[in-house]
């Protein structure tokens, strides 16, 4: 999903993929497919095949400047 979002931002919006960050990710409930499984004595058990909608939003941020190394070692 993330690769698809990056490819869409790069091709559709002409954004640099190196500057993309994940803005939001959420999953919503999709339609439920209702199926039946045959059981003994003519009964049927319901099977619910659940689906979902996954949404990934990316945004373009400028690259951060390189930070200077701290002096002094670990203690």
Automatic annotation (TrEMBL):
Signal peptide: none annotated. Coiled coil: none annotated. It holds the Pfam family Ribosomal_L22. It comes from the Bacteria. InterPro entries: Ribosomal_uL22, Ribosomal_uL22_bac/chlpt-type, Ribosomal_uL22_bac/org-type, Ribosomal_uL22_CS, Ribosomal_uL22_sf. Keywords: Ribonucleoprotein, Ribosomal protein, RNA-binding, rRNA-binding. Residues 56-75 are annotated as: Disordered. GO terms for cellular component: cytosolic large ribosomal subunit. PROSITE patterns: RIBOSOMAL_L22. GO terms for molecular function: rRNA binding; structural constituent of ribosome. One of its GO terms (biological process) is translation. The globular domain of the protein is located near the polypeptide exit tunnel on the outside of the subunit, while an extended beta-hairpin is found that lines the wall of the exit tunnel in the center of the 70S ribosome. Belongs to the universal ribosomal protein uL22 family. Part of the 50S ribosomal subunit. NCBIfam families: rplV_bact. This is 50S ribosomal protein L22.
């Amino acid at each position: 999903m993330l690769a698809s979002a990056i490819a869409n931002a790069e091709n559709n919006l002409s954004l640099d993929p190196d500057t993309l960050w994940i803005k939001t990710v959420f999953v919503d409930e999709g339609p439920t497919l209702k199926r039946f499984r045959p059981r003994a004595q003519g009964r049927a058990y319901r099977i619910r095949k659940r689906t979902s909608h996954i949404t990934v939003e990316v945004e373009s941020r400028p690259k951060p400047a390189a930070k200077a190394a701290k002096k002094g070692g670990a203690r």
